[in-house]
Amino acid sequence: MLESYVTPILMSYVNRYIKNLKPSDLQLSLWGGDVVLSKLELKLDVLEQELKLPFTFLSGHIHELRIHVPWTKLGSEPVVITINTMECILKLKDGAQDDHESCGSSSTNRSTSESTKTAVKPRRIQQATPDPDLPPGYVQSLIWRVINNVNIVINNLILKYVEDDIVLSVNITSAECFTVDEFWDRAFMDISATDLVLRKVINFSDCTVCLDKRNASGKIEFYQDPLLYKCSFRTRLHFTYDNLNSKMPSIIKIHTLVESLKLSITDQQLPMFIRIMQLGISLYYGEIGNLKDGENEDLICHTKDVLGNISGSEDEVGKDMQYISPESYAQQDDDQQQGWVSWAWSFVPAIVGNDDDEGYCVGIDDGTTINPQKLPTVKDPIVSIGFYCTKATITFKLTEMQAESSYYSPQKVKSKEIICWEQEGTTVEVLMHGEPFFDCQIGFVGCHALCLKSIMGIKDFEENMNRSDSEAYFFHCGENLSTKGMTYLTNSLFDYRSPENNGVRAEFILDGAVHKEMYTEITGMQRFGAFYMDYLYTMDSTSGKVSGNQPDVTSVKTEDFGNIQEMSSKSLIVGPLSLRLDSSAVHRIMKMVVCALEHEYEPYSKSKLDFVDGAKTVLNSDEVAALEEYIPTRITNFTILKCTVTIPMAEFNLLGHLLPIIMGQKSSSSFLNTANLQPLRPLPCIQMLVDKVVLEHSVPMYAEQLVQTVSSLNQPSDNLLHYCYAHCYLKIFGFQAGLSSLDVNGSYSSPAPVVPPLSTAFYGKMLKLPKCWSKWSNVAVKECIFELPNLTIQATRAQTFLMQTIWQSWAYTGNVSSPVVNEALVNEVFQLPGVKSKNPLPTLEGSIQNVELKYCSTSLVKCASGTMGSIKICAKAPGDGGKEKLIPLIQGPSDTRDLHSSKWLNESRKPESLLAPDLLAFTIQIPQHKDYSYSSGAVLLVSVQGLTVNIDPVLYTWLVYLPQKRSSRPMQQQSGSVSLGTPVTRKKEDEASVGSTPLAKQQSNQASEYASSPVKTKTVTESRPLSVPMKAMLSSLESCNRSPEERMKECIGVVWNAVKRLTLQLEVQSCCMFIPNDSLPSPSTIVLGDIPGTVRSWYHGQAHMPGTLVLCLPQIKVMSAGHKYMEPLQEIPFVVQRPILEEGDAFPWTINLDHFSVYTLLGQQMTLNLIEPMGCTSTLAVTSQMLHAAGPESKNSFVVCLHVDLESLEVKCSNPQVQLLYELTDIMSKVWNKIQKKGVLHHSQAHTESASGPAPPSSPIKSSVGTAPPDTSTCSPSADFGTTTEGESLQGGDDSPFSDSITLEQTTSNIGISSGRVSLWMQWMLPKLTVKLFAPDPENKGTEICVVGELEDLSASVDVQDVYTKVKCKIESFNVDHYRNSFGEDSWSLGKCGGVFLSCTDKLNRRTLLVRPVSKQDPFSNFSGFFPSATAKLLDGSHQQHGFLSLTYTKAVTKNVRHKLISRNERRTLHKLSEGFTDGSPHFLHEILLSAQAFDVVLCFPFLNAIASIFQAKRQRNQKEKRKSPGQPMRTHILTSRNLPLIYINTGVIRVFFPKMDRMQHNTEDCKTNKEDTLVFKIGSVSMAPQADNPLGRVVLRKDIYQRALNLGILRDPGSEVEDRQYQIDLQSINIGTAQWDQLKPEKENGKGRTVPENERNSQNPALEWNMASSIKRHQERRAILTPILTDFTVRITAAPAIIFTKVISPENLHTEEILVCGHSLEVNMTTSLDFFLSVAQVQLLQQLIQANMAGLEPCNKAAECVSEVTLLDQAVLT
Prior knowledge:
By secondary structure, the chain is α+β, with helices and mostly antiparallel strands.
């Protein structure tokens, strides 16, 4: 009877999965009680269909199947099913294979699973019901008892998964499932009315998982270490039923416990491991085939590592029991897609059935099929799945050489552990209730990571090193199980306190809101110490019942959005952790990254960006409203509590071998030598602490449909748009950093704070599927906001040195040995508590506040805007009495509007308010596309508020600090360069990795010895290893050898591209700099850090105000053409009223500068101006045209024009100001020298460049700094710039000796713009420059003199081209007058001699007549012995009419202009003296043209002496100049024809007057005697040219060179290698005579106390002039009679400087030798006769003049010291 019921149940199952079975055989043997079946093939298709996995079974068979049925004791003994050796091989399904199954199906996985089940069910029922009558009740209950107590034993389960070259194999020695009692002991149990519970246990023993690589033929060559070796674990199952007749349990609990889990991964397994994880993620996201939610049982373990926590124990569970899958995924991936829950759900009946031995095929299935109306009443059970692991470790190993092995079996690989992760108390719990509720919690109590053995040849943790554990552990998080207890097992079936173990029915929270209240971050961290994650998914139906179909990502209809509300939230929290990134840890982690990158696999999924727009569904208004109401979103919260990161100095640094590989470059196959690491203690380190980091991320659940729907609406609301973005918030609280040091015991010293606690926040959003939004150009694709309320950094100089050392130890890759740290420095930074240092160092503290930055990009533009509230920098220095004094150094924003004049010191000034505008506000917008033809150019708006700066001497103290060197052990230079160990290792290193350790860097330490001798340099560079490709070497050299000018040109090109369409608006308020010569601490009474307030309080209150120089920089406004002012801070993106479309439309820019001034503050409340406030307006224009270059790249040529109109400039100066300036420059230069001496500022390693590689032979054109590249067209004489005739025919008709000569200035003005890449033209206009000098009168105590120099109408222009630079300067008039005033008077009167010192007008009588004896009156006496000099003609040709002075300076590239300067009749090819390509000629020719009109000078030495005393600064007593020890005299030749410029000078008449002093003049006025009292010296004209009419013969030292140059005819060519240049100076019609001052002096010198009106010289008043015509005429007729001493004579001087020939010895390193060919020669000729007259009166006058003037020179020092306060007050009055 029983057989007829039990047999079909067993039969149906065996038959269902196993091929070729005869039911009759099976039946017969079953009735015997035992059945044994051997070598069975599994029905693979049925398995695939049932399991719905994304895998295909390649093979599957069972070696032996035993079924034991104790027919006689069925009520008390279990049925035992034993499987011996079951083997399956799987591979991934091809996408095509399952397309026919799921293509076009819009049903969800749940429904698919239903359909497959129903397809199978009818067959099961037919087989299972031979007897149509239902069994009576007792049989029914007996069958249930049998089913509930079935034992299943599997021995030797073998699973294998293959893909590409990966082989994943799993072997479980035995797994046994049996029923247990309430104490979990094996028993025969039944469900009773009192206890509706069934318990089972599954024990797994010896599970091993391997991951290996197979070759192309499918064979595994080397066996890797197993991932998991012989791991055992046990699972407890607990079923609760509602009543005895329940077909399905209402609560299912399945919990697994692993005591110890040891995973090992080798470097070769790592890429495969990652591949398997990627497979899991791709399956999960449905990127493979169409199986969105398929699970891969084989990966369960491997995907664990994404959160770095578990490992494969449940992996094994999964292999046998499908139920483990959900939690593995939950933990494997943060972004849970909901679809797979329904997939997992479809297994619940199978699980239950599995444990019930498929009993429901009779019970449940029959019931449900026969009574279909009962179907909805089957409730979904609550399922709880748990995985618990007491201790897990993951070890990463590096494989080494292969160990010897037998010939046939694969070899085993020897491996070495380098890093290990240990984890305690791991929990994974999943709770699900149908589809509407799914929750997964993961946590662990504690974890840490440690370093093992050695890495990259550095033996840092070998066994014999005796290093403490604390040094090996570099990462700690959470707590120990010993202290925490067994909290991780709470409420599990393994917890004796859990309700199930105490016979109580468990309660579950199945409501999202209650769940969130219950499971907060705090409760999570109380249960687990290190990590806690809670993932919750709920689905509420607005219509009251949950629809059967849970929407699938690919198939949601838009109307489904409304009636189902889905919610997914994840919160992850990481407990207190500490991480130490020392060399050992960093190298190991980097090595792992390198190993992970070593194998490239094809990606599983193609990116979805190119999806095709389907027919977009257009929604009606109701649907839009429903959509507005609820949009499903995924939310992730990630929190880190109390995180400490320590970065010590690198003890060794071989990152040069690893970083290139990570950056994607080729790896250097390098040999690493082994070395033992001597740990360095104390080890300085940077410690960073963060209180809390919170990251929130939200993303729409069904982005694709949502975006397609919303983007198709005409006017989507802001709310809908908001949901189309992925949002991310990052908040950091309490970040701080400091310096600490690690001592020998492994403990840290208390940190010296560098960054006090700060908080910051960042927000970003990114548009999903931007391709959908192509028509919305104003929708932001990306948006970021950054906020930093306050950032403060404080450090002493010693601390910055230490940080620099730490940085350099990491930055310079390639050193094997430990760097050396200066002990004194460490002791200075980390002082022992209670020990006071002798002289504490000043601390610099800078803070910036309220930084806000915003970035936004749309499909057309990228834009950014931002503000910075304020900046403050101050110094804390030790003060008197142990108190700290605070010295403000920089403060902004600061109200600097009134600071340009010193009035503010005496007016009331409001303190800086908190409502001050932001210091900096800017907005910038740039078009996205470089080749835009339709969009406008970029826009930049900037506004900077005022800034005050105090350059205090405490800053110099801070900068100059140098740690003392200790002699106890060899110390390193403190520049922080890292020592390089022994030379041997260095050489090996170099050969090992060329690319990563540049030689130049290594040799910089020994640079001095190389730089001196060229021979050494060569030997060094030739030892460069051969593995460097030659091309790479050459290209790197080219980049080194590019001249600064070429780099500059490239830079200009880049800048031009940036600004050619830039709308610019720049506003910078004035910046005021105070430079005191002594510290200015801030008094406690004023607002902290207010610099003007500090200065003012010192100015008024303190007894001794330090001398202070105040430099008020101008406020700047720059506007591009046609732009109207906008607010600098705009909402981005924004639109400009007049966008710039064409290139160059932005120009010209208008630049305005206002309120530039300089003044000094001296003690006793005195202010003296140096430069009165002034400003200027300038216009900058740039044009560009494309050059059609011969090469492939066409380059632009630029013309930059700058026109500057300055306002009048007034400069004042007196001795105290000079003294102050002298002191300040003295202090600064000393500081600069100290800094340079110790090399804090790293010099550019110019001198080591020669050691960095052999330079290719370069022409001198290349080698010189700053020349144009060789242009072949310019070398031949015929190819010419512009027309040459213009220049040549200038002086054609004249026969004078240099009639043919052309100045350089004319030559260069013919060169067209098109020749060069960049040309610059600047013009300055200055209407008036006034210089006032104040000095005490040396003769009369209590009076003061003031010298006023006025230059009017200055104009200067600069023209810079590729081949020449030209500066022109013109001055309309120049006069110097002097005034005097007595003590206490306000008015100033003209000084002695009519107050004239230098005049270019006819203020002094021009009509002087030289009286001569009759015999000498000669009709031609006015002419000199020469015709007007050629110089004069040349200069008149080049200089148009000008005022007082005109000066032109030209510098041109020799080879470009040389052939034009050679006179026409000797045009010929240019010859070179030196052989080969080397050229010894100078690179540049210089020329100066100067012409001046007539001017007068009145000389009076005491007066000059008084003026000179202004510029005498007293040295401090102790500053004796150090005499330099006499060394080898350097042989330099300065005055040579190579170095001197071509000089052309031409002046008008120069008269110098020596009047007698006033004392004598008073007497003469009384006597009315006409006594001559003035000596007059006059030169008719001065002219100079660089060619001599009558050249001197030379004394030749090297006749061979001279003769060769003579034969080639290049001696007279300007700029040739051997040039015999001779200068000729003509001084014409010189005479000396005496005259009366009254006849010479300005006529209006009668009013004594009258102040001279400023505009006297400029005013033109016709009426006044007509009225005064008679007196003017009389004044014009006034003549001055001169009595001669020397009558007219002329002097000619011919000077020939030395000739030097520069011989280029080796062009490679530009080594040259200078050879002296001829020395200097000089000849002076009087070309006319010399007549000499002398009277007694004249002798007397001469003697008086000499006496008066010499007497004035004696007390020069006293004069300098008699600067009385009187003087200063007077000057203050005048200013």
